[in-house]
Design a protein that fits this description.
Distance between the termini: 29 Å
Organism: Aquimarina hainanensis
Subcellular location: Cytoplasm
Protein name: Translation initiation factor IF-2
Helix content: 25-40%
Strand order of the largest sheet: 3-4-2-5-6-7
Number of strands: 21
Structural class: alpha/beta
Family: Belongs to the TRAFAC class translation factor GTPase superfamily. Classic translation factor GTPase family. IF-2 subfamily.
Number of helices: 15
Bound molecules: guanosine-5'-diphosphate
Shape: globular
């Protein structure tokens, strides 16, 4: 109703416009930014987004280029189950203690930093797997700079390996392969590289650009060299941050500790965080009372790419929440309260993901250029056939992107990827498994299942032309 008043049109018209976009709203409901733009456009208005007075104080500071310094890369380890993700993270954690540092990494705080002999640093997210990675991304947090994908050389490029690759690619995060377990007599790293090449992923040994290294997470063979390659890749990304500004970053995990209160692990992405700073993290706030690194040391400040656990927040923010440092406590509290209120009002989600029914309209409105699809099928043949046919439907107006395709049921991880990348899921002779349907309903992800290839192609074609008859 606020929007209607601003545009001087009846509220019912705004509601019916929303409905024509497939969004059921009530008078008092808030619209997300994208819907607002589309609705305003329908009535000939353009939306200019300004931050509210309160949120303005956390508006992005424009860094002076002279203040920017190189920061350490933040790395996530992914791969198929049992291929050695945890072993690799453990090995790195145990072996790479900073020279002269008392004691190793003693605390599991969700992330840790290591320093190589040459003084260069790398920060690792200690929750391995692409599910955690994509769940953070679905919450709008882009933390990872590089992904190490672990593949066991005595096994194969497995379904979850392919998933991890798709998830990293969909996020635009460069990949480095760690071909693991080369200490085993049955290991065959070349076979793995050949399989990757067949998937159009050419590693350096094969004349390609993707870095890979043969390692053993058990004996430590090659791990140092792998980390050197990580740093090399990071150099290309020219990762920089300004340590002089007030800190901001992302929450990695948070919990209530009986003795200490709320403990949150955060990753400082830019600026420097100090004891006494007033922090706003998601819907929580507070003054930092103490900070500890992964070695259990009390520290007074933490610069860019540093994981740190903090004490002093008035609650446990969610993994993936952004945190910012504000001028004063009152301000931090007010914004946190306002956010909590907005969250309650919006408990009926209006943030919608794309559906097949909506595509035609969105294309017609001209604000929709790329359709992301996740494709799952019962056999390779059908997946490939559908990939080909779908891609051929790309037009000048809209590009069809198959961000992940695989044989197998539709999983929760597929739904998370769809949510993080705003994709629809197409299943051919497969159904959602386990929790996938429930999560899809919650995240409002469109899942379409077919048993006739022709139907799938026709539906997409019709949808793109805005001719799809809605499913009941
Ligand atoms: P994750 O599921 O990917 O985290 O895999 P884990 O790190 O738990 O490893 C699965 C199993 O493989 C464990 O029994 C490890 O001891 C073993 N493993 C991991 N890396 C190596 C390796 O480099 N060589 C050998 N021989 N075994 C390994």
């Amino acid at each position: 109703s606020e929007v209607a008043t601003m545009m001087d049109v009846p509220t019912t018209k705004v509601i019916s416009t929303c409905m024509s976009l497939g969004i059921m709203v009530t008078m008092n409901q808030r619209l997300d930014a994208e819907t607002l733009s589309i609705v305003a456009d329908e009535f000939g208005y353009e939306v200019d987004f300004v931050t509210s007075d309160l949120e303005e104080s956390i508006e992005d500071i424009v860094d002076n280029p002279e203040d920017l310094v190189v920061r350490a890369p933040i790395v996530t380890v992914m791969g198929h189950v049992d291929h050695g993700k945890t072993s690799l993270l453990d090995y790195i954690r145990e072996e790479n203690v900073i020279a002269g540092e008392s004691g190793g990494i003693t605390q599991h705080i969700g992330a840790y930093g290591v320093q190589l002999e040459n003084g260069q640093k790398i920060a690792f997210l200690d929750t391995p797997g692409h599910e955690a990675f994509t769940a953070m991304r679905a919450r709008g947090a882009q933390v990872t700079d590089l992904a190490i994908i672990v593949i066991a050389a005595d096994d194969d490029v497995m379904p979850q390996t392919k998933e991890a690759i798709s998830h990293a690619q969909a996020a635009g995060v460069p990949i480095i392969f760690a071909i693991n377990k080369v200490d085993k007599p049955t290991a065959n790293p070349d076979k793995i590289k050949e399989k990757l090449a067949a998937m159009n992923l050419l590693v350096e040994d094969w004349g390609g650009k993707i870095q890979s290294h043969d390692i053993s997470a058990k004996t430590g063979l090659g791990v140092k060299e792998l980390l050197e390659k990580v740093l090399l890749e990071a150099e290309i990304l020219e990762l920089k941050a300004n340590p002089k500004r007030s800190a901001s970053g992302t929450v990695v995990e948070a919990f209530l500790d009986k003795g200490r209160g709320y403990v949150s692990t955060i990753l400082v992405q830019t600026g420097t965080l100090r004891i006494g700073d007033y922090v706003l993290a998601g819907k929580n706030s507070g003054k930092i009372k103490a900070m500890q690194d992964e070695r259990g040391n009390n520290v007074k400040e933490a610069g860019p790419s540093t994981p740190i656990s903090i004490l002093g927040l008035d609650g446990a923010p969610q993994a993936g929440d952004k945190f910012n440092v504000l001028e004063d406590e009152r301000e931090a509290k007010d914004i946190a309260a306002k956010r909590a209120q907005l969250h309650r009002e919006q408990s009926v989600r209006t943030q919608r993901h794309i559906t097949l029914d909506e595509i035609g309209r969105r294309i017609a409105l001209g604000d929709f250029k790329e359709l992301n699809i996740i494709l799952k099928g019962d056999v390779d043949g059908s997946v490939e056939a559908l990939t080909d046919s779908f891609q051929k439907l790309s037009t000048e107006e809209i590009h069809i992107n198959i961000i992940h395709k695989a044989v197998g049921a539709i999983t929760e991880s597929d739904v998370l990827l769809a949510s993080a990348s705003d994709a629809i899921i197409v299943g051919f002779n497969v159904r959602p498994a386990g929790n996938a349907r429930a999560v899809a309903d919650k995240e409002e992800i469109d899942i379409r299942t077919y048993s006739i290839i022709y139907d799938a192609i026709n539906d997409l074609k019709d949808a793109m032309e805005g001719m799809l008859s809605p499913v009941m």
